[in-house]
Amino acid sequence: MRISARLEKIPPYLFAEVDRKLAEKKAEGVDVISFGIGDPDIPTPDPVIERLRAEVLNPEHHRYPSYFGLDEFRRSAADWFERRFDVSIEPSSQVLPLMGSKEGVAHIALALLDPGDVALVPEPGYPVYEMGTLLAGAESLFLPLKKENDFLPRLDALPRDEVKRAKVLWINYPNNPTGAVAPDEFFRLAIEFARANDLVLAHDNAYSEITYDGYVAPSVLQFDGAVDVAVEFHSLSKTFNMTGWRVGFACGNEEVIRALGTIKTNIDSGIFNPVQLAAVEALDHESGTVQRMVEIYGARRDRLVSALSGLGWEVEPPKGSIYIWMAVPDGFDSVGFSTHVLERAGVFFTPGNAYGPSGEGYVRISLTVPDERMDEAVSRLKEVF
Ligand SMILES: Cc1ncc(COP(=O)(O)O)c(C=O)c1O
User: Judging by beta carbons within 10 Å of its beta carbon (0-12, 13-18, 19+), is residue 20 exposed, middle or buried?
Assistant: First the structure.
């Protein structure tokens, strides 16, 4: 049997590896407190669950769903988008439901890239931008995100001949893994750069609703001219604590949305209707759940930042996302520190270099751990350090 050459280039999926390592520790009897994967511990809102329960009994929904999603979901997504960002998008041509935004982020590479093409990919970054590019047979040109540049890519410093081969520029703010947010000027610059270089600007806005200290994240589509070049990915996973439900949407430039739709029509057969209707429930009747969730993450952020600073570590509160991006203490590299903390304290932080070489020297700490476990982790760390 021979497996495709393409797969040889793909390393094991980061969190599949993390799961394996943590399972090993648990099998050894260690009570691991994991700040690894960003999978919310806060429950999905009850009305969303109730809507699924009701809809699942309708036999009409047991047949194939529509490839392009229910009109109701597309309309709801567009209405939510307009309420939230004050931008009107056309539900039938500018919104495409996704089986989680990861699915769209991966598949859009097949819609935009051919072998030999280049994608401009931030690093450290969400691994799927690079992996989707690889699966499409294309190459990534990495854009380092450095603290000295506020974790924004230096678009002006990119080699011109490489940029000529590029067809897509990925950006993601609020950012995973750095927790950084981007000023409006950066979005304007990215739109201008995409236009000048004939690129699609793909903005992954999975954490748009999770921001702190009064900061409200924009949509790229709020800025002039964006719809000519940009698509944006939204996810119900983090916004409504629905990671397991697999539902999100892409929106923006019509031609790109259509191209992504063509790929998906040939790969999947749409989202189970009751899940789409539950998503409608979440989007239409938000009623303060997002705000309460952000308050919980914000309180955890402050609690953890103060505890980790108390250990003498250099740690800054993120402005957005559910991650603290912490420089490892002197004398450690990312993997060394992550391993030390796991072995000695049974606490897991993801090594920053797992997200790209510029993540070396950092760990990512997810805020999806409840207070008691967080306090337990801190007291174990105090014993070790
Ligand atoms: C930056 C970013 N984009 C997209 C996703 C995918 O989210 P989902 O597929 O659950 O919508 C994640 C998940 O962690 C993420 O961190």
Answer: exposed
Written as six digits, the tokens of 293 are 């969730």
Distance between first and last Cα of the chain = 50
Pick from 205, 208, 189: nearest CA to 197: 189
CA distance 208 to 42: 18
What confidence category does residue 11 fall into, taking pLDDT thresholds of 50, 70 and 90?
confident
Percent of the chain with pLDDT over 90: 89
Q: How far apart are CA 358 and CA 177, in angstroms?
A: 11
Amino acid at 206: A
Q: How many residues does the chain have?
A: 385
User: Which ranges in the chain are annotated with CATH 3.90.1150.10?
Assistant: 5-43+289-384
Q: State the fold for domain 5-43+289-384.
A: Aspartate Aminotransferase, domain 1 (3.90.1150)
CA of 315 to the centre of ligand 1 (A): 24
Q: Domain 48-284 classified CATH 3.20.20.150?
A: no
Ligand 1 pocket test target in 13, 129, 235 with most atoms within 8 Å of CB:
235
Is the pTM for the entire model greater than 0.90?
yes
| Cβ 147 vs Cβ 316: under 8 Å | no
